[in-house]
Amino acid sequence: MENQPNxxxxxxxxxxxxxxxxxxxxxxxxxxxxxxxxxxxxxxxxFAAQNKKDQPSTNTENTLKTNDxxxxxxxxxxxxxxxxxxxxxxxxxxxxxxxxxxxxxxTPQYEELEAMYRKLKDKGFExxxxxxxxxxxxxxxxxxxxxxxxxxxxxxxxPQFKKSDVNGPNELPxxxxxxxxxxxxxxxxxxxxxxxxxxxxxxxAPGWRETSxxxxxFTKFLINxxxxxxxxxxxxxxxxxxxxxxxxxx
Length: 250
What we know:
43% of the residues lie in helices and 12% in strands. It contains seven helices and six strands; from the N terminus they run ααβββαβαααββα.
């Protein structure tokens, strides 16, 4: 009987620690959601202010150039040092091409992406990271600063390229082609952010569902061994689903 008070104290402390951990996790989740929503609001306000309905969402010149492009290996990207890198270097590999940001609510996906990369890279898998500052000005740093942030914060080791546009008149030809192969099919129904994002886009960017434009940071395109686009994942998609799709191609 003498040990009962001690056991009760230990139980109370354990229960308190669990509640603290749960509250901390809830706070972090709330902060992430707020970052995403603030970024979307900033992006949509600029979208409306610039009256993009009067501007083509894709580069016509790029569209003409990419008409004869058949696989991802027909394209190139610019490295962080300014050198052109042919994607033919990745021929015969499964690729996940991602437009990323360093200050977005989805930025923690870097950690899951790196874990996936380390797990599958020896099986012929590569992640191609294309930083982009078009969505809420959430990637303001230089290429060097972006790389340092990703390596220090998340230990990333997959290839990262020069910060570039993925929508609009200055978009990469690669992205013109990717979007022509797999258009936008909606945010994921099982993500609690989806109804909020849809409402915000509906109110500020009419017709957004009908365009193939990249909607937000961390949109992903999956490329098979033949260099063909086989899937597009919106940032609301679980990384577990993405990894399952990647594994099926290896």
